[in-house]
Amino acid sequence: MIQSVDPGVRRDDKPNMTASIRFFTFAAPSRFYALAGALIPWLWGLTLALAAAGLYIGFFVAPTDATQGDAYRIIFIHVPAAWMSMLLYLVMAGWAALGWAFNTRLASMVARAIAPTGALFTFIALWTGSFWGKPTWGTWWVWDARLTSELILLFLYLGFIALVEAIDDQRRADHAGALLAVIGAVNIPIIYFSVRWWNTLHQGATISTTAAPKMASTMLTAMLLMTFAFWAYSFAVVFTRARAVVLEREKHTEWALDQCQGVSRARSAP
Amino acid sequence: MTWNSASEFFAMGGYGLYVWGSYLVTLVVMLIEPWLARQRYGRARSEVVSASKQEN
Hints:
The complex is a heterodimer. Chain A has helices spanning about 15-20, 30-60, 75-100, 105-135, 145-165, 170-185, 185-195, 215-250, 255-270. Chain A is mostly helical. Chain B contains 2 helices and no strands. The radius of gyration of chain B is 22 Å and the shape is rod-shaped. The chains are: A mainly alpha, B mainly alpha. The interface between A and B is large, with 46 and 33 residues.
């Protein structure tokens, strides 16, 4: 029923005082730490394999676009990055809200670990969009609904990071961050539907569930492979950062010390 | 095959600056981010060890 040995217990605590707190045993940071550590090498392998396949098809199999020439090849990173920027925000806000509602520390730690990666993909979406806009629209930037709402997304990520880092009390920081993340989630449907709700320079959705694909199947294949590569990348880098966050917060626990001393002892062995 | 030569590939039909400007920056930031995360992880590990030394 209740774990007799709680790996998250502080060395100076009495074990039976804290054991009853964690009824989400699967959410124990120590278990997550081990599982994520085992998955990270595989995720990096997957990232490289998917990206290699996607880039090969994108550059050597997919034909030159009839209207946009070869400038369209930016799509293979632009659209996956834009998707990831929105998806990661929803995942971040979801974990932050869970951490707030159910007081699960790990959920809040994962939310913190996601934020920089989400900001990175938002930056990539904006940067590649700018480099695509210049040859096709004749301008690097325009204050239209899609671009502006995506820029707001970048500020939401940066605001979340700044807020949780600025508050010293970690649980208070988690709660404040969750509030910001949940309110900011309103921006996601605005980004997604902006090309339909407003007149905009930005073209409509690339993939639609109601219409037949407008692009050649090789282009679509390359774009989807790059999307999966970005997924695997996100898992790998978020897990790496989440493991760091877990250790930072659990540095006074027995299990964390065991983890960290195990390796240093093995390294110093002759 | 779309390209007849390496120079044609790098020219990207005249859009080389835009295509490679996008891909290069994406590659660079996607190398820096995992490196930073890994640095932070290494720092966290050594903090755990030094925290235990302070307590004992």
